[in-house]
């Protein structure tokens, strides 16, 4: 199959029923609704109950995306699940999803790239579809971050929430779909945002659990600065590669980390605020799920129309970051 582009054919999302509001957090940690709202834009986040796990939300989001793409799960060639909160260490969450969907032909694996994971997945599926190596890929971002949040650490626990988003990617008319995509990383920033316990280095013992080594730890100020710079730069790079200008962008969906990060990136790129998507007030930071949830909410509300130019940018622990521009 020559001269095809890869584009999104269908999207879906899902999240837990449980809601954790800023007022709820005021009762468990030394914070206020006023602080959280003014510093982050977050008013509430979804929080999974004890019996719930990541793949359940991923499967629901995926089923919606597959149905909207008008294909059958058996036609999928590849499933990439971006997650830093898998159901279990082995097998991958993607394999568990593959079985649930009945996608018997699909290769499946997880992507560990934190908040940039969904863009990593789209970027990797893109050349496989363009080259004809595969026809349909399912890219998912799914996280239960609240399981790894220390609810005694006010600097992190107010930020994160749970959810999943999915997209079926496949061949589209060749001036549509993904026009340019880039992903980057810099592991020297490991300790700016990390969870040291639970692996072969930090171990997983009663002591590591008591110390809370498995919880996310973050130097918020540092992350903030690098996030703004990296997302702005990579957005400019992909627009340039696609031969587009900021004015050509109809909708900008950045990773939802902090409303102030979104505003600063939009400001640096000079994107009109009316073109910038935000759902951070309702969801907080859902890591790899935030962009696909945002995409699907925009599809559902009619905010995305055929031929629209959509810019996506993400940044996350690692550090990792990515940018992608597509014509819908
Ligand atoms: C975490 C973040 C919201 C903190 O906001 P900030 O404006 O940088 O705040 P600071 O960390 O400088 O802290 C300012 C003060 O608020 C306090 N504070 C931190 N969290 C608080 C909370 N939830 N409630 C009340 N006060 C809080 C700090 O202790 C500090 O107090 P001090 O001045 O007495 O020492 C912000 O840095 C951020 O969003 N960073 C990026 C995080 C991120 O996106 N991570 C994921 C990457 S994808």
Architecture overview:
With 328 residues, this protein is an alpha/beta fold. Helices cover 34% and strands 24% of the residues. The protein has 11 helices and 13 strands. Strands 1-7-6-4-5 form a 5-stranded mixed sheet, with helices on both faces. A 4-stranded mixed sheet has the order 8-13-12-11. The protein has a two-stranded antiparallel ribbon with strand order 2-3. β12 and β13 form a beta hairpin. Bound molecules: coenzyme A. The site of coenzyme A has 21 residues, from α2, α6, α8 and β12.
Main features:
328 residues, binds coenzyme A, globular, 11 helices, 24% strand, alpha/beta, four-stranded mixed β-sheet, 13 strands, five-stranded mixed β-sheet
Q: Strand order, main sheet: write it out.
A: 1-7-6-4-5
State the secondary-structure class: alpha/beta
The residue-averaged pLDDT reads 97
In helices, the fraction of residues equals 25-40%
Give the radius of gyration.
19 Å
* Order of helical and strand elements: EEHHEHEHEHEHEEEHEHEHHHEE
- Note poorly predicted spans: none
Oligomer: single chain
């Amino acid at each position: 199959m020559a001269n095809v582009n890869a584009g999104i054919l269908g999207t879906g999302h899902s999240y837990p029923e449980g809601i954790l509001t800023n007022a709820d957090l005021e009762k468990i940690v030394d914070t206020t609704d006023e602080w959280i709202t003014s510093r982050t834009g977050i008013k509430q986040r979804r929080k999974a109950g004890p019996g719930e796990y990541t793949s359940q939300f991923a499967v629901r989001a995926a089923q919606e995306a597959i149905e909207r793409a008008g294909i059958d799960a058996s036609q999928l060639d590849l499933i990439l699940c971006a997650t830093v909160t898998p159901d279990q260490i082995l097998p991958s969450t993607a394999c568990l999803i593959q079985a649930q969907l009945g996608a018997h032909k699909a290769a499946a694996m997880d992507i560990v790239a934190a908040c940039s994971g969904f863009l990593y997945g789209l970027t990797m599926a893109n050349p496989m579809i363009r080259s004809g190596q595969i026809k349909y890929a399912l890219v998912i971002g799914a996280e239960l971050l609240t399981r790894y949040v220390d609810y005694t650490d006010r600097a992190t626990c107010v930020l994160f929430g749970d959810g999943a988003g999915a997209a079926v990617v496949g061949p589209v008319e060749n001036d549509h779909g993904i026009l340019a995509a880039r992903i980057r990383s810099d592991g020297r920033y490991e300790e700016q945002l990390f969870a040291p316990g639970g692996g072969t280095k930090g171990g997983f013992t009663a002591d590591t659990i008591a110390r809370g080594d498995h919880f996310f730890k973050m130097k918020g100020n540092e992350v903030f600065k690098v996030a703004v710079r990296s997302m702005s730069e990579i957005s400019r790079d992909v627009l340039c590669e696609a031969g587009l200008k900021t004015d050509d962008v109809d909708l900008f969906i950045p990773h939802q980390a902090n409303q102030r990060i979104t505003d600063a990136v939009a400001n640096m790129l000079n994107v009109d605020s009316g073109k910038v998507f935000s759902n951070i007030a309702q969801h907080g930071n859902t890591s790899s799920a935030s962009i696909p949830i945002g995409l699907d909410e925009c599809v559902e509300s009619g905010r995305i129309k055929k031929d629209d130019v959509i810019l996506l940018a993400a940044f996350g622990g690692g550090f990792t970051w990515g940018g992608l521009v597509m014509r819908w």
